[in-house]
Design goal:
By secondary structure, this protein is mainly beta. It has no helices and 16 strands. The protein has a 5-stranded mixed β-barrel. It has a 4-stranded mixed beta sheet with strand order 1-6-7-3, with no helix packed on it. A 3-stranded antiparallel beta sheet has the order 2-5-4, with no helix packed on it. The mean pLDDT is about 85.
Length: about 200
Amino acid sequence: MSAPMVCVPGQRLCREEDKLKAGRGTYTRNSFIYSSLAGPLITTKNEDGMTLVEVVRNAEENVVPSVDALVTAKVTNVNPRFCKCAIIRVGKTTLKDSFRGMIRKEDVRATEKDKVEMYKCFRPGDIVIARVISLGDSQSYLLTTAENELGVVIATSEAGASLVPVSWNKMRCPKTLTEEYRKVAKVQPQYIVYSDT
């Protein structure tokens, strides 16, 4: 059984029909049903045979990335124009279900934007601190790392070791001493969360 689709507020879910109606956590506009909450989408049948489209939310699952929020994301895919991420944390709150995020080439750093090479900034598996710019297309949040405090905070070298930052654009493998390019975050003490993992 596949996991239910997770919705964000304002997301269009489906067309309202004779046997398909908006239930809890949804609303209707122009004959379409939209989500009014962040949470998993469920459908239930009532005693009249109607199918209700509902979005439910548990009390601890109501954190949604908002514009200007700091998020922690894991890079999943990198190409020359942008990289895709899974947002796993909003502020200090770890999410049960990740949201999709995207860092475009022009949002990587504040200066020399035309010289940015995505493969020298991020690699799949990197953990990044970024800021939400806006809700982009197809439910993917647009993120930026164009501040000194934002960028890669955790990365693994090709030898499997945790990379150590040596400058704003390089990290070094402690095993092989090979340097790899990254858009390195200058982490401020208030952003550090100590964990046992």
